[in-house]
Write a structure and sequence with these properties.
- It comes from Oxalicibacterium flavum.
- InterPro entries: PEP-util_enz_mobile_dom (IPR008279), PEP-utilizing_PTS_enzyme (IPR050499), PEP_util_AS (IPR018274), PEP_util_C (IPR000121), PEP_util_CS (IPR023151), Phosphohistidine_dom_sf (IPR036637), PTS_EI (IPR024692), PTS_EI-like (IPR006318).
- Belongs to the PEP-utilizing enzyme family.
- Its cofactor is Mg(2+).
- The chain is built from 24 helices and 16 strands.
- The protein has 582 residues and is α/β, with parallel strands linked by helices.
- The strands form two sheets. Strands 1-8-7-3-4-5-6-2 form an eight-stranded mixed sheet. Strands 15-14-13-12-11-10-9-16 form an eight-stranded parallel sheet.
- It starts with a strand and ends with a helix.
- The site of magnesium ion has 5 residues, from α19.
């Protein structure tokens, strides 16, 4: 096979080498996971049994056909029985389970997809229409299969010999991405997506190389192709030569050595050369992420994205209730052993839709998302506030409110917090009466009206992902405008430095919790603007600390002031690059 290279947007760093596993949209609708070697025959039997069940169903349908039913109906069932008995449907998926270790649903969906695309190319119209029959029979079997739940294998359960797998998909939603958290995948490639889409953020939090916005990747790359992802450059090499493979393996080994070296910084204080201490915090999606945060030497959690608790829920339990949420928040605060945990209230909408909640905005990024949604659903919001307040009896918690822009939104939120407190007092439930409440500064209007926030709240955290999206008017998940997503645009640098300086002057703690905080190319620039609190993925903590302990504010601050007076894009980019070597 001829080797070729594809280019996309680098979203999660490092090198991944492995075999392609294409997730077709149809396969995404069913569960897809790998079967441990000793479970393969059981999985084969599960599919065989589902096929047998559908056989019986079809026979019953036949025998129960009313006498006056049109003759085509019987013929139609006959065709379905024939399709079901054909080895293409009854045997090939079994081979897929045996050779690729896919679960039954995934194996079947893969084969249906393959057959459908073959049929779609047939010239004869009658035969071409059989495509729909194949899909219907496949759906019948899938329906029987999905009646049974399965446990997902964890990494390591697949045996050491299995080659690493790289997921290739047209698009992956943040909820789908979460399903990969505990699986044995080593990299991601998608056709769509932007630098700071939540899918990209989850890939970074999994700490596996990923490249998104690789147009047509899912059609150009074939199942089982050898792939290399260069997550730093956003490059994907398909079917690499041995020489190229060797070069990347060497780079992979060098990165592993560098990582190991960074590991030694875990207990080193995050203090600049001139003696200025810096606080390094972790962004988490689940309480289970806390051990990784502590491993990276985090001083606390700067952003707990609570909305992830609301995703991928089994239908019967709908949204997590107060007790379930309380258990998660308490787990996080206990895991952090006395370090502060900043819980952000539900930030749903835009690219984080949630099942069971209708999202009807014409333009979701500008619609009823985050705090706007919570204020429109006060009962749901109060449930979350009570759960967070209850957890605050077990350790230091801070409450962070997303997407605020208006004074009345702050006032209504504070009133609801008071209401939640009053409800708990009535029930004699303990909580932290002084629970600090802060705002995310992620809408330009907020950054330009800081006194509104400073007067009412006790801390601020800049969400650069949304701040950039809204300032530059580009959808952060749209790959067609991803090239316009520029953290170094003078307007962004102005809003950042203005917010940091205004908060510092007022004595209000300020952090950055957007992706810029975990980007080592931005560390010195943010330090130069006066930032002393950075919140990022646990995997980035030690690299950012490494930058900090090698930075001298005496040199960086005047250089940053000069950058803030520069407006030419190349001059700004060059000057920021030069900051790295000062
Ligand atoms: C941000 O917008 O920068 C942020 C941290 O929040 P999220 O990425 O979850 O929108
Ligand atoms: Mg945001």
């Amino acid at each position: 096979m001829i080797s070729f290279t594809l280019h996309g947007i680098p979203v999660s760093r490092g090198i991944a080498i492995g075999r392609a596993h294409i997730l077709s949209p149809a396969a995404l609708d069913v569960q897809h996971y790998l079967i441990a070697a000793d479970q393969v025959e059981a999985e084969v039997a599960r599919l065989q049994s589902a096929i047998a069940t559908v056989h019986t169903e079809l026979q019953t349908l036949w025998s129960e056909l009313p006498k006056d039913a049109p003759a085509e109906l019987g013929a139609f069932i006959d065709v379905h029985v024939l399709i079901l008995s054909d080895p293409m449907l009854s045997e090939v998926p079994l081979d897929i389970i045996r050779t690729r270790h896919y679960n039954a649903e995934w194996a079947l969906a893969t084969q249906i997809e393959e057959l459908s695309s073959q049929f779609a190319e047939i010239e004869d119209a009658y035969l071409r229409e059989r495509k729909a029959d194949i899909e219907q029979v496949g759906e019948r079997v899938l329906k029987v299969l999905t009646g049974s739940a399965n446990l997902l294998p964890k990494p390591g359960e697949l045996g050491d010999g299995a080659p690493a797998m790289i997921v290739v998909a047209h698009d992956i939603s943040p909820a789908d991405m979460l399903q990969f958290r505990d699986r044995a995948f080593s990299g991601f490639i998608t056709d769509l997506g932007g630098q700071n889409s939540h899918t990209a953020i989850v890939a970074r939090s999994l700490d596996i190389p990923a490249t998104v916005g690789v147009s047509h990747a899912s059609t150009l790359i074939k199942q089982n192709d050898w792939l290399i992802i260069d997550g730093d450059a956003g490059v994907v090499v398909v079917a690499p030569s041995n020489l190229v493979l060797e070069q990347y393996r060497e780079r992979q080994a060098r990165l592993a050595r560098e990582r190991k070296k960074l590991g030694k910084l875990k207990k080193t204080p995050a203090v600049t050369i001139d003696g200025t201490p810096v606080t390094l915090l972790a962004n988490i999606e689940f309480p289970d992420d806390c051990p990784q945060a502590l491993d990276g030497g985090a001083h606390g959690v700067g952003l707990f994205r609570s909305e992830f608790l609301f995703m991928n829920r089994p239908a019967e339990s709908a949204l997590p209730g107060e007790d379930e949420q309380f258990a998660s928040y308490k787990q996080a605060v206990i895991a952090m052993k006395g370090r502060p945990v900043t819980i952000r209230t539900l930030d749903i909408g835009a690219d984080k839709p949630i099942d069971f909640i209708e999202h009807t905005s014409l333009n979701p990024a500008l619609g009823l998302r985050a705090i706007r949604f919570c204020l429109a659903e006060p009962q749901m919001f109060l449930t979350q506030l009570r759960a967070i307040l209850r957890a605050s009896a077990f350790g230091p918690i801070k409450l962070l409110i997303p997407m605020l822009a208006h004074a009345f939104e702050i006032d209504q939120t504070l009133a609801l917090i008071e209401q939640a407190k009053a409800q708990l007092r009535k029930q004699n439930v303990k909580f932290d009466e002084q629970l600090p409440v802060g705002a995310m500064i992620e809408i330009p209007a907020a950054a330009l009206a800081l006194p509104l926030f400073i007067k009412r709240l006790s801390f601020l955290s800049i969400g650069t992902n949304d701040l950039i999206q809204y300032t530059l008017a580009i959808d952060r998940v749209d790959h067609e405008v991803a090239h316009l997503y520029n953290p170094l645009h003078p307007s962004i640098l102005f809003l950042l430095s203005h917010t940091i300086a205004t908060a510092a002057k007022a004595g209000v703690p300020i952090s950055v919790c957007g992706e810029m905080a975990g980007d080592t190319r931005m560390t010195r620039l943010l330090l130069g603007m006066g930032l002393r609190e950075f919140s990022m993925h646990p995997a980035q903590l030690l690299s950012v600390k490494n930058e900090i302990i090698n930075s001298d504010l005496g040199v960086i601050e005047p250089a940053t002031r000069r950058i803030l007076r520069t407006y030419e894009p190349t001059a700004v980019a060059d000057a920021v690059e030069r900051l790295q070597v000062l």
